[in-house]
From TrEMBL:
<dbReference type="GO" id="GO:0005634">
    <property type="term" value="C:nucleus"/>
</dbReference>
<feature type="domain" description="Rubisco LSMT substrate-binding">
    <location>
        <begin position="4"/>
        <end position="121"/>
    </location>
</feature>
<keyword id="KW-0808">Transferase</keyword>
<dbReference type="GO" id="GO:0032259">
    <property type="term" value="P:methylation"/>
</dbReference>
<dbReference type="Pfam" id="PF09273">
    <property type="entry name" value="Rubis-subs-bind"/>
</dbReference>
<dbReference type="GO" id="GO:0008168">
    <property type="term" value="F:methyltransferase activity"/>
</dbReference>
<keyword id="KW-0949">S-adenosyl-L-methionine</keyword>
<keyword id="KW-0539">Nucleus</keyword>
<dbReference type="InterPro" id="IPR015353">
    <property type="entry name" value="Rubisco_LSMT_subst-bd"/>
</dbReference>
<feature type="region of interest" description="Disordered">
    <location>
        <begin position="39"/>
        <end position="58"/>
    </location>
</feature>
<feature type="compositionally biased region" description="Acidic residues">
    <location>
        <begin position="43"/>
        <end position="53"/>
    </location>
</feature>
<protein>
    <recommendedName>
        <fullName>N-lysine methyltransferase SETD6</fullName>
    </recommendedName>
</protein>
<keyword id="KW-0489">Methyltransferase</keyword>
<dbReference type="InterPro" id="IPR036464">
    <property type="entry name" value="Rubisco_LSMT_subst-bd_sf"/>
</dbReference>
């Protein structure tokens, strides 16, 4: 369900791998009985019409059912824990011109990427709280 990458791709305004995330949330939030039925039917019948109308925008994420929101929230927390430093530490380093300039060009670029990723994850935390 997650795909070859093993991760979901989030943007500022929506989930870019919305089909995979939507399917994963549906399956992981099923009751045992619902999951058995799902397996017996080899998935759902053609839900393509529903899927087309359910873009996982930031607004839609904030309206998810509580179990799905909790699952996403906990997953984001685990992802954030996997980083070496928190968002504030990255922001402080970006704002400290002297320390920032001591970084190699590659380290500066990595810092910007990590900072952007963490900001998106923190935004998602707020949406699903």
């Amino acid at each position: 369900m997650v795909g070859e990458e093993g991760a979901f791709v989030l943007g500022w305004d929506e989930v870019l791998t919305e089909e995979e995330l939507s399917m994963t949330l549906k399956v992981l939030c099923m009751s045992e009985e619902e999951f058995k039925e799902y397996k017996e039917q080899d998935g759902w019948e053609d839900d393509s019409e529903d899927e087309e109308n359910s873009t996982l925008s930031n607004e839609a994420l904030s309206r998810l059912k509580t179990p799905c929101k909790k699952l996403l929230y906990d997953s984001v927390l685990l992802t954030l824990e996997s980083y070496g430093a928190d968002l504030k530490a990255e922001q402080d380093l970006l704002n400290n011109k002297e320390a920032y300039e001591k970084l190699s060009r590659r380290e500066q670029q990595a810092l910007h990427v990590r900072y952007g990723q963490k900001r998106i994850l923190h935004q998602l935390l707020e949406l699903v709280q």
